[in-house]
């Protein structure tokens, strides 16, 4: 059965097509995984709503008001240092670390993991905190995300905010009357609009200014935001996270939109994100070409370096006394970093999520899995980089396959961009 032309495909069909194409080539395995995640989110209508903006605008306080519960730490000093995802359910808090460990903690300890004052520059290696709460706002299945603010002294917080804003389908972009829109917020908004499908602009701290001053500030914001977003009418919601003024109106509009227009919002969000995935795949293939066309002497040196890393990992595995699941995750992360450093390529592994107290694997299995990890990477690099390949047919076949992949990916990307331009 012939596949329909790309221009006639739905967003879901284009995402499925992109995933099939990417999954067929090991050089873009990370982008294949990202495309699969987008496809699954679209099929499940798994919508993410995030509060984003500059630090100390009151994001966590507003989040508590929207959720109807004081679930996130707030105060004069606290600055959020790690992403917190809030889902509907009975109250519980789980910390997920970058190395794959998951730990359930008392809610009273939450501040230790997401406050910059107690987890400076995320020294604890927290990937995210997942918090369940019986909030009516989340009952329809939304995931609510509180992000670190951009522009603070702590560079890590800005990097985390930029990484996670790419996952948002709808965004509450928070401004504040105590500061005009600045370049940091403008740059962040320009990036965010490339990923999220729906924006809700809120201005916080309205209880601190007079009605006249608030009116002037809102006019200023409307003018700037209309220019930035390319829209004639921008709706801004004046709110006070401290008193709750204006929050119910904001919530009502969000809930109505995400109920009545959920599918169209998810399709637009998926299209935007898929364009980014394809752009990164094209960039990845460009790095791949550069690596593949290195002189043999330079390529030899880099393969020797990755072999040294793998030899060191094998030695550490042989001497390891326990915590085998955790060490295997750490080896995956280390090998990914080295491939990026040496070949300019993203090489992704699935990091196993580990509950504290789970039964560890035995030593023999651990050593065997470590060996498989290293040997599989070496074979994959040999194969995709055609290392020392002398068969002309194999080389030509590989070049043609990459060119076909690039053409197909660009056709999907251009079709998605055209769809978005018509919405």
TrEMBL record:
Domain Dynamin N-terminal intervals: 49-204
Organism superkingdom: Bacteria
Gene3D superfamilies referenced in this protein's UniProt entry, alphabetically: P-loop containing nucleotide triphosphate hydrolases
Membrane-spanning residues: none
Pfam families with a match to the protein in the record: Dynamin_N
UniProt name for this protein: Dynamin N-terminal domain-containing protein
The organism of origin for this protein: Hornefia porci
């Amino acid at each position: 059965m012939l596949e329909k032309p790309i221009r006639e495909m739905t967003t879901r069909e284009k995402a499925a097509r992109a995933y099939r194409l990417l999954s067929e080539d090991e050089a873009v395995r990370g982008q294949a995984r990202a495309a699969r995640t987008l496809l699954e989110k679209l099929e499940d209508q798994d919508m993410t709503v995030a509060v984003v903006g500059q630090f100390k605008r009151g994001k966590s306080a507003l989040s508590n008001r929207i959720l109807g519960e004081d679930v996130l730490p707030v105060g004069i000093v606290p600055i959020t240092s790690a992403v917190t995802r809030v889902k509907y359910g009975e109250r519980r808090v789980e910390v997920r670390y970058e190395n794959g460990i998951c730990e359930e903690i008392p809610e009273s300890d939450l501040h230790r993991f997401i406050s910059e004052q107690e987890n400076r520059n995320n020294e604890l290696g927290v990937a995210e905190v997942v918090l369940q709460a019986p909030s009516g706002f989340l009952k329809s299945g939304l995931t609510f995300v509180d992000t670190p603010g951009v522009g603070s002294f702590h560079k890590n917080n800005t990097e985390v905010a930029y990484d996670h804003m790419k996952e948002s389908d709808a965004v509450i972009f928070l401004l504040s009357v105590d500061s005009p829109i600045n370049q940091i917020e403008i740059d962040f908004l320009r990036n965010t609009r490339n990923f999220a499908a729906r924006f809700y602009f809120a201005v916080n701290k309205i209880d601190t200014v007079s009605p006249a001053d608030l009116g002037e500030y809102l006019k200023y914001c409307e003018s700037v935001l209309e220019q930035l977003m390319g829209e004639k009418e921008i709706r801004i919601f004046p709110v006070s996270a401290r008193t709750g003024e204006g929050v119910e109106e904001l919530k009502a509009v969000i809930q109505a939109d995400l109920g009545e227009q959920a599918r169209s919002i998810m399709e637009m969000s998926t299209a935007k994100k898929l364009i980014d995935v394809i752009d990164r795949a094209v960039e990845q293939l460009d790095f791949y070409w550069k690596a593949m066309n290195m002189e043999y002497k330079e390529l030899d040196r880099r393969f020797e370096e990755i072999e040294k890393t793998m030899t060191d990992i094998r030695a550490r595995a042989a001497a390891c006394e326990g915590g085998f699941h955790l060490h295997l995750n750490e080896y995956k992360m280390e090998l990914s970093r080295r491939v990026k450093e040496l070949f300019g390529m993203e090489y992704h592994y699935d990091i196993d999520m580990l509950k504290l107290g789970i039964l560890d694997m035995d030593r023999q299995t651990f050593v065997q899995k470590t060996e498989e990890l290293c040997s599989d990477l070496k074979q994959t690099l040999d194969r995709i980089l055609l290392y020392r390949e002398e068969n002309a047919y194999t080389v030509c076949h590989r070049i043609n396959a990459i060119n076909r992949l690039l053409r197909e990916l660009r056709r999907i990307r251009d079709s998605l961009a055209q769809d978005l331009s018509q919405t």
